[in-house]
Amino acid sequence: MADALATPAVSSNYTYDLAPKTWERIRSLRRGTAVFTMPAGPIKCGGAPQKIPYLAADYWRQQDVLGDIRVVLVLPTPAMFGVKAFSDELERVVAHYGIEVHKNSELVDADGRQAVIADNSADTKDAIGYDFMHVVPPQSAPDWVKATDLADPASPAGYVEIDKHTLQHTRYPNVYALGDAGSSPNSKTGAAIRKQATVVATNLQATMGDTTPTARYDGYASCPLTTAQDKMLLAEFDYSMQPAPSIPFIDTTKERKDMWYLKRYGLPALYWNLMLTGRA
Asked: What are 147-193's pLDDT values in tens digits?
C-alpha cells in the first residue's frame, strides 16, 4: 500500500497530506474505474471508509459523468453495515449511485494499475484495472501499547485487553483503557469515547477507593455516514447491534438532509465546546 500511495493514481484520506490528492483525482476523473477499499479488522469508525465513495459518486453525478465511471467498493464484511436497518439503507444508496460492491473481500495487491481483490467467502481473486483508487490502511493500537503486557495476547492488533462493560483491564485491575486503545468490540468513534469517558472516570475512582467498579458501558457508538454532499445517515447503535437513536421523533435509519446539517454544524460545536471541555 505504501508503494501504491506513491503513484499518481492512488490516495488515502487517512494520511493528512494526501487528502488534497484525493480531491484532485476525483475532480479530474471523467471516465474509467475508481476503486475504494476497506481493510479487515477493527478500524476507527467502521463506516468512515464508505463516506468517500459516496461523496465522489455524488460529485460525479453532479458533473454528469457518473455514467462513464465504474465505481467499485471493496468491503471485508458480509453486509454493508453491521446493523441491518442501516445496512438496508446503504444498499439503497449504492444502488442509487450504481456502485459495484464486493463483500467479504479485501485488497491484497495494487501493482501497475491493477487492484487484486480477494473474495474470502469464495477463496477467489479478481484483478480490476483502475484509474483511481482510494485505500484505507489496516489499523491497530500504537506500537508502544502492542509491545507491553497490557495488550490482548489473542489479537495481533495489540489493543489493551479490557472488560467491554467496565473498561477495566482483565488482568491488571488498576488499568483502564478507552477509545482507540481499548479492545472493546465497539466502533471506535468520538461518540463512543464520549460515553466511555464517564464510565472510566467513575470506575477509576472506585478502584482508587478500593470499591467495586459499577459503571457500565453499553457499547454505544455513532457513525455519521455522509451519503451525499447534503445528506447523512446517522447510525447509532450499541452492543445489541440494534439502532440506539438519541434524537427523538426522527427516523435516523434513513439518509436525511437535516442530519447533514447536524454533522456540518452541530457535531463540531458539540466536540469543541462541550466534549473537549468535559461538559458532555
From this structure: 999 999 988 899 999 999 999 999 999 999 999 899 999 888 889 99
Q: Annotated active-site positions, please?
A: 45, 223
The enclosing H or E element of 131 equals none
Q: Say whether pTM exceeds 0.85.
A: yes
Segment 117-146 shows an average pLDDT of 93
Question: What cell was used for 97?
Answer: 449511485
Alpha carbon distance 272, 267 (integer Å): 9
DSSP calls for 160-181? B-B-TTT-BBSS-TT-B--GGG
For residue 223, list its beta bridge partners: 235
Q: CATH number for the 2-136 domain, one of 2.60.40.1180, 3.40.50.1370, 3.40.50.720, 3.50.50.60? A: 3.50.50.60
Q: What is the pLDDT of residues 21-62, one digit of tens each?
A: 999 999 999 999 999 999 998 888 888 999 999 999 999 999
